[in-house]
C-alpha cells in the first residue's frame, strides 16, 4: 500500500496542474472548437463559375497535371480566372482552365486578390486586407489536413471581427479562416487541452508520443487515487474520510468524481490511440484500390458537353465505381448530378442512389446487403459534406459497415467491431455524445460544464495539497 501511496502522491504532484488545465480547457472547447473553414463558409466564398470562359477539357487537365491516379477534378472560379483542381489519393495540383498552365499561387498579390474576392462573396469588408505571413506552419494551420496546401498565405482582412484567411499555395483556395475571438478562446481551450504549441505539433510523431505518454501517466495517477480513495473510506462511521482540511476535500470530491474522472482521463488517452489498440477506420489497401481506382477520363468529355448549371459555384467530376460523374454545386444544400449518357437527375436533389452504392460495396467485400439511408439519430453518426444529402450505410459479412456520401461518393466511415467499440469508449465517454444527450443539447451543455467544474475543483484541491507537500519537502 505504501508504494501506491507514494506513486499517487508524486504522480499527483506532477500532474495536478495538467488535470486542472484539461478540465478548464475542456469547458472552453465545448463551446469554441478549433478554428476551421466550415463548408457553409467555403461555399459562400465561391464565385459563380463563368460558363462563357474558354477552357480545356477535363481529360486534358488530368493529363496536364501528371497525376496518374487522379480520382477527382473540381472547377472553381478564382479572381484570376477559372481553375481545375486535379486530386488523387496522395497529391493535388491546380491547372489553369484556359490554357492548362500551372495555377499554383506563388505571388502574394495573387493570394491577396483571392482572399479579397472570397471576402466580398461572404460580404466581409476587406478593404484594408493585407498579407501578414507565408509559412508552412503556424498555430492554427498545424493539423495534418493542411499538408496538401502548404505553404499557406495568411491574409488579415482588416474587418471588425479580426478575420484572417489562409490561401493555399498549391490550389489558390481558401483553406482556413479564423477570427480574433476564436484565436483568443482557443489559446485557453484547444491549444492547452491538446498540448498544441506549434513547435511541438508541427512534428506529428513527436507530439503523438509526448501526449500519449503524458495521458497514460495521468491515467495511472487517477487509477491509483481511485484505489486509495475507496480503500480509505470509513464505513459505518460518521465521518466518511479519515482526513482533515484540504485532504478531506480532496478525498470526498474525488469519491464523488471518481467515475467521471476515470472515464474522462481514460477516453482522453484513447483520443491518442491512433491504431495502437483499436482499428483506425481506414480502408484496407484492397478496399482503397477499389474506391480510389482511377477512371477512364475519356468519359468526361461527354459530360463536358452538357452545359454547367447557370447557378453553379463549383463543378466536380469524380470517379465512382469505375464511372465518371459530374456534380454542379448550385447551392449549399443543392446540386445537379450526371453520369455519362445520363440526363441531369432530380434537379436540386441529384444524389447517388441505392443501386449505385450497392454496386460499389459489392466490390469492396462479400455479403453486403442493400444500403439504407442513415438517420440523423443514428448511434454511429456520419454527415455528408453537403447539408441534407443522404449518407448510405451498407452492412456486409464479417460485421463490417461502410458509410458512403450520397453527394460525392466518398467513403465517410469504415466501421468494424473494433471501430464501433472505439466510438463508445472514446467519443461517448469523452464528449458525452450519447444519443439521449444529443437529443437535448442544452441538457448536455449543463452536464458537461457541471462535470468538468467538479473535476476542476477536485484538481484544485490536489494543487493545494501538492504545493504544501513540495514546500514541506523543500523546507526539510
From TrEMBL:
Transmembrane segments: 12-32, 210-231, 251-270, 446-467
Signal sequence, start to end: none
Keywords, in A-Z order: Membrane, Transmembrane, Transmembrane helix
InterPro entries: PepSY-ass_TM
Protein's name according to its UniProt entry: PepSY domain-containing protein
Organism: Bradyrhizobium zhanjiangense
Lineage: Bacteria, Pseudomonadati, Pseudomonadota, Alphaproteobacteria, Hyphomicrobiales
